[in-house]
């Protein structure tokens, strides 16, 4: 009897430690040094868990899907931009470090941030001397220029972002490095010498550095470029180079002997070898992460619902998790082009009637779904300001009385019928549609589910205005993650009405407010950070006044920290572990 | 099970009354079993004989009873849920769900007096209500599709087998085309592009009609081939020749001589097709192209349950419902085949 009681107290103590860990927020310092720091939940958020400079070992990644491409000119996943820094260097980069450190720009290939001239229309970068590719060739500014020019060709590189195409002053009819070989692109990019690259923009831009950090500025030697086949052997400019690429199975990286740590203060490069397997079942990844067979789920979106229960219920497992915020908003577009949602009061009724907790549960609950959102801009993006125009009641389950009030004003006191579109392949979006059906039905709004195919959701159906009008898609389940933590990068694609085309393809489905467009233009041109953030807040408020976006949650992910990892911290730019920092015990 | 009564009772009844008078007993041994004593020997129709055999097959009979109960359940679900609105399969009970793990707060999947089979993770919807409400859709689509395949398959199969020649070639090639058709892929594509209003139907009714059409229309060659083969062998038989020599024309021979002989294989095949169709509907719902949410279907529930595989109760109940239904139809179909055509054992 006595023995059992003692055991119980001991267990209680363990649980208490685990619980204390849960509360461990963003206080800096923590994480005792020396070998094997005590794991605690969220120990890698805002600070470094298990810091170490020990080199060696094999770091193992797994991906439940596959990269869009590992070619630096052709990739647009956040995890890919995090990972690509292991084998490429861009012109500049976000600083590596926990908390807000990653918001600052530092030189990468270049000595430092760009120098603006000509009323912010010309940006000049100076390269550090003696940086080499894996084969020992010296990297020149011409390689950077070539890399940007080749990424222009969307037929060969369909995946990458198109910022340079839109920003740089390319000659009329320019078609990229392959098709326009004879065209002189000097009006857009110049290389006066081997260490200087100059960008010429169409219009003044307050901060070009955030574009110069894109993987598309990573150098590509023209002599080794094979176009679409370059991804089979990307020439490394970073600390690691490809050893073997097996399509559909994965790849491995080994140290690049020509990488000089002296030219690269940003990367630790601790492991000797990196192995990546692709196409691994996500449940398998979760289980292997827990057992220690794998170190990182490279996609970084967190564990599945089955593992969630297991991890949260077990204090020792829970201590090995981090629950970072991601600069992503889960939301639903409320389309003002579909009657009766063309009436603002009907839209406001939708805002009030929504059960925010049901929305949160649908996208994954408190831990993997995120925090209930009341604004468009998530807290990680500068310009975020907390406000709530449509309070959802004390329990966050919606304000039915207010909703009915606005329905009456809208002339539909008994409610109305509309449709909710969502991507059929995504269980979370289906759950959101069901949650909306349930919560809106409380005020008489009948919502009919419209599952649509993911592949042409934006290009052919929900994102094509004539289709949305014809099918009466009043509500469109949506989600958006910023390309990097900047208000313009977050807002431009989902709130600028000029990106909406009648032929479809836009992520913006419901925001058509001329004042917002104007404010976005002011934001781009302004070199003053504080003013840009103020404009972002104003845009956010204007959109919420119009009630054309129904915010769901600011996303979070519950990720498992691999066994034996050192130097673990969440890089806020990516909302996942900093892959360049990780090492092994 | 089946072997026991056949080897046992069947044989003894044959040997026990050797003197039980001539031709009738030899031709219809079943008649002997009960009619041995004082009663006069009564001739029995094929149907009666089959019924007698079926009654003795306890497994098949059990399957039949389960099917009858399932049909009653399905009809009552349709009435109570859709007509009277007494069941609330779509009502959320999120107060019973843990906000961080998404699992039911209580043990055993949230089973309680109020929710006897527990609740769904995430939404907290009552599982009993959903399994119950899902029953009529599964059965309606499966039987509807079966009737459609049987109608098309029988018509074309008989025509091909009886007339032969270029008609046969044409239909047989058509069957090959349909058999080679990637049905699942096509069904997914078609179910995705059909709008909410078409052919004068809308919403769920259209969805159900569409699924019946897709599943039924593309399954006809299987039964068509069987009917064609049977017709080919039957049309050369003496009774057909006799009818023909008496002056009977094609349609009459088809209707009066061939079809009655085809009833047995068609019936058997139909009962075996129903479970296949139930599974097919479940597969479509599983892939998200079946009935739209929030309407409960067994396949759709399974699809929802997969990502919560650590909470087995969620998968158990709809899975069990499909399992019982498919098993009952299969056992009944097997028994029916044995009863109608003892040689096929």
Description of the structure:
- The complex is a heterodimer of chains A (585) and B (345).
- Chain A contains 17 helices and 23 strands.
- Chain A has helices spanning 2-23, 78-83, 141-151, 163-167, 209-212, 282-291, 305-313, 315-318, 344-353, 356-362, 365-368, 400-409, 427-441, 465-471, 487-495, 514-525, 529-546; strands at 58-63, 92-94, 105-107, 115-117, 122-126, 189-190, 196-200, 240-246, 250-255, 273-278, 296-297, 321-322, 325-334, 371-372, 417-423, 446-452, 475-481, 549-556, 559-560, 565-566, 570-571, 576-577, 583-584.
- Chain B is an all-alpha fold and 345 residues long.
- Helix content of chain B is 72%, strand content 1%.
- Chain B is built from 14 helices and 2 strands, in the order αααααααααββααααα.
- In chain B, α7 runs parallel beside α10 (203-234) and α8 packs across α10.
- Chain B is globular, with a radius of gyration of 25 Å.
- The model of chain B is unreliable at 1-28 (pLDDT under 50).
- The A-B interface holds A 283, 304-310, 312-313, 357-358, 360-362, 364-367, 419, 424-425, 427, 430-431, 433-435, 437-438, 448-453, 471 and B 90-92, 94, 97-103, 121-123, 192, 195-196, 203, 288-289, 292-294, 304, 307-311.
